[in-house]
Design the sequence.
């Protein structure tokens, strides 16, 4: 990758996502940095997240997505940021 090639951070917000999170994170594997922000889970989501993500951040549960997205955005280190919720994924066309 050249010095002028844009780098992309990606993040997913999750809460008790379990196995469905795998599909989401697999669709983001092309990003240069992958972050998962978890809203105080009570299941096995961390083991799924840690298998794919560069960083896993736990935050207190909040009904407002704005707070959680702000935390995730601040954790990203690249200029371009792509985010998904745990039950979303990119299509092959979207990745290209």
Sequence:
């Amino acid at each position: 990758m050249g010095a002028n090639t844009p780098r992309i951070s990606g993040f997913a917000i999750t809460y008790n996502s379990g196995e469905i999170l795998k599909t989401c994170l697999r669709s983001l594997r092309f990003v240069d940095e992958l972050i998962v922000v978890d809203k105080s889970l009570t299941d096995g989501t961390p083991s799924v997240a840690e298998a794919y993500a560069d960083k896993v951040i736990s935050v207190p549960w909040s009904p407002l997505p704005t707070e959680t997205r702000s935390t995730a955005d601040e954790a990203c280190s690249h200029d371009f940021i792509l985010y998904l919720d745990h039950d979303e994924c990119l299509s092959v066309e979207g990745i290209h």
